[in-house]
Amino acid sequence: MRRLAVVLLAGVALPSMWLVAASPASLASPGKATPSASQAPQQPVLSCGQRAGDQSSPGTSPPWAQQVLGFQDAWQFTKGQGENVAVIDSGVSGNAQLGGRVFPEQSLTGTSAGLDCVDHGTGVAGIIAAAPKASDPFAGVAPAAHILSIKVTDQDGVDAGPLAQGIIDAVIDHAQVVNVSDQVGNTPALSDAVLEAARNDVVIVAAAGNHDPQTNSTGPFFPAEYAADRAVYPNVVSVGAVDATGTVPDFSSPVLTDVSVVAPGAAVRTVAPGNTFQQQDGTSFAAPFVAGVAALVRASHPNLSAAEVVSRIIATADGGTGAGAGRTGAGMVDPLQAVTAVLPGAGQRLAPSPSPASVSVARLRPPDRFTRMLVVSVTGGALGAAGLVVGAAVVIPAGRRRPLSPSARPKQAGARSDGPAQRLVQGQDDDWLG
């Protein structure tokens, strides 16, 4: 189950070391700078009870979430290359399918951002960016994206203060997309951090949260709930969960957080530390599917703002998906449509599609006197010949004319209007190996 966060209400005092907020002037521009291991700050590496996954293999067939979303179809257009996705979580341990694309950027704990002590952040990162392998059916949504590990906890749950600072750190570290698989209460520091991300054109993808049976808390939870006010927080998308039947699971249905879209969040397979695998439940593991889609959209539509990326993800979701109690927002996120769909009012680089049929418009030509005289002469001759035919018809005995039977009369053709059918042209599956 997803780890539940400590809910802090607005106005509760937080340790000052958690609230070191950078001023807008001090934040670096969120360009697409590619991080390097030499630039990453040195972090203390202390031992912790790092847990490997309970599965040594991902199985022989792609996980159900991978089959339902079909994000591999979008890889013919982009794999998320050039995009930095910050995972604000429990750290990201090394994994073969993540390769050298994980960068331990910041840690607010006593352990390295490259060490996952609670087996959570690694799974989130795998869903976002694990590269496919020839003998491995599991893959992440954007297998060419970089993962920036921003570590804010070494235990189950996180406080709002470190979470807010983690968002600020992600903006400073040039993240274009931020994944937050945590749920906390609203605080001024968290609101300010999300607004700072908006000012720096950073997409925030946040888990809508899970019902806590111990506290009976149903939210709404933050930062996901900020998505309810798009006028103020246009860069936030809130993600709910559905299971393999498209039903909202019990852990999600009572939650009051406003949901933008849903994604697979029950029995989700992903990677774990030590090159192992795990099966997880919770909106924590639904959010990274949408974060991966955001990376695909940002890579394929580089001119879109963070707010436009969020709008595109919501507009292209499958509104018919989602059943049972709880909120499903615009429906199941659709990676291929998010990348390729033609939306009104935007110049976009899109998937190949049939060109519209050309329409020929007749133009008036200048008068031709010679042609006019020729037409008059021919017409006069034709009228004379017609007169002879009429005269001959008059002298034919009336008794030889037989009326047509009703069955022999020509039938009037029915009108038909067939509109052109528009199809999306898809390429062959890509066998790219990361």
Molecular structure report:
The chain is α/β, with parallel strands linked by helices. The chain has a domain at 60-340: Rossmann fold (3-Layer(aba) Sandwich), CATH 3.40.50. Helices cover 22% and strands 11% of the residues. It is built from 8 helices and 9 strands. It has helices at 64-69, 121-129, 160-172, 188-199, 287-300, 306-315, 335-340, 369-394; strands at 84-89, 102-107, 146-151, 177-180, 203-207, 236-242, 261-264, 268-272, 276-280. The strands form 2 sheets. A 7-stranded parallel sheet has the order 2-3-1-4-5-6-7, with helices on both faces. It has a two-stranded antiparallel ribbon with strand order 8-9. Helix 2 packs parallel to helix 5, helix 3 runs parallel beside helix 4 and helix 5 packs across helix 6 (306-315). The model is unreliable at 1-31, 37-43 and 349-434 (pLDDT under 50).
Task: Provide the residue-averaged pLDDT.
Answer: 76
User: Looking at the structure, what is the overall shape?
Assistant: globular
**How many beta strands in the DSSP annotation?**
9
CATH architect. name of the domain at 60-340: 3-Layer(aba) Sandwich
Sheet/helix structural class: alpha/beta
Tally of helical segments = 8
Name the CATH homologous superfamily of the domain at 60-340.
Answer: Peptidase S8/S53 domain
Q: Kindly, what is the distance between the CA atoms of the first and last residues, rounded to a whole number of angstroms?
A: 29 Å
Q: Taking Cα atoms only, what radius of gyration do you get, to the nearest Å?
A: 32 Å
Strand order of the largest sheet: 2-3-1-4-5-6-7
What is the percentage of strand-forming residues?
A: 5-15%
Might you state the CATH topology name of the domain at 60-340? Rossmann fold
Note the main sheet.
7 strands, parallel
Q: Catalogue the unreliable spans.
A: 1-31, 37-43, 349-434
* CATH class call of the domain at 60-340: Alpha Beta
